[in-house]
Sequence to fold (198 residues):
Amino acid sequence: MKNKKLVAGMFWWNVFGIGFVVYLIAAEFILKAICPFCTVVHVIILVTFGLIFVLHRGQKKLVSLKTFKTWIAWVIIINLIPLIAFNVGGGEDVDYSEFTKCVTDKGVNMYGSFKCGICAKQRQLLGDSFEHINEIECHPQGKNPQTQLCLDKDIFGTPTWVLEPNGVEQNRQEGFMSIQDLEEFSGCKFEGTQNGSS
Fold:
């Protein structure tokens, strides 16, 4: 009896883990960046789930459908919490115009894609000031695409920020950039003002 409870507990613990595997895989697609360490962990969890599933099926009594649906519902709710927390909410009204002009003057280019979720998040961060950023569209279906240039530059994920004054690459960084990240990357300093409450 004790062993049956232990196996059942391990089974549901692994079901819980599978929910987070799905969430993290979705995040990798959205970020267009693969985390090798995460992938190893995903494989370990899936193998463990497979083994415990076999043990669980070997028991006389399987979990009820109602219990299964309840656990699935909780997994969905738990996964929705960070999704909502990071993607819902009003942004701050900040003028980054002088800062973004400086970033471009320094020779920083953002290689992006109109289908890239993180690129959209980056544009949202900078607001109207993003118009001063030199964005190079890598997707062939995007507006004014420069797909061949992206291939020549070995751009494998978007957004990719490249510091290349006079066309000579000095540094690159993939993924979302905070204002602090952009300051460090470009050498520019944000000294703008924020409109509204802090």
Summary: Residues 93-191 form a domain with the Glutaredoxin fold (CATH 3.40.30.10).
